[in-house]
Amino acid sequence: MSGLPPYATTGQRAWYYSFRVICGLIFFFLIAPIMVIIPLSFNAENFFTFTPEMLSLDPAGFSTKHYEDFFTNSDWQHALRNSLKIAPVATLLSVSLGTLAAIGLSQSHVPFRRAIMAILISPMIVPLIISATGMYFFYSNPYIPTPFGKIELPFTLTGTYLGVVLAHAALGIPFVIITVTATLVGFDNSLTRAAANMGAGPITTFFRVQMPLILPGVVSGGLFAFITSFDEVVVVLFVGSAGQKTLPWQMFTGLREQISPTILAVATILISVSIVLLFVVELLRRRSERLRGLSPS
Amino acid sequence: MSDSVIAADGRPLKASLNRALRRQKLRALALIAPLLIFILVSFVMPIADMLFRSVENEIVENTLPRTVTALEGWDSSSDQVPGEEVFEALYTDLAIAVEYKSHTRLGSRLNYEATGISSLFRKSGRRVKKFDTDIYAEVFAAADPAYADPGQWAAWMSDDTVRAQLPVTTSAYDDWAQMIIDTDGDIPAEETPWNFVYTALFQDAAAGASLPIAVDVSTVEPVSLRAEFGDLDDKWLDPEVWQTIKIYSPKFTNGYFLNSVDLMKGPEGVESRPENQQIYIKLFVRTLIMSLSIMGMCVLLGYPIAWLLANLKARTANLLMILVLLPFWTSLLVRTSAWKVLLQQQGVINDTLVWIGIVADDNRLELINNQTGTIIAMTHILLPFMILPLYSVMKTIPPSYLRAAKSLGATDWTAFWRVYFPQSVPGIGAGCILVFILSIGYYITPELVGGTKGVFISNRIAYHISSSLNWGLAAALGTILLAIVMALYWAYDKIVGIDNVKLGG
Question: Which of B133, B136, B340, B416 is least enclosed, having the fewest CB within 10 Å?
Answer without folding.
Answer: B416
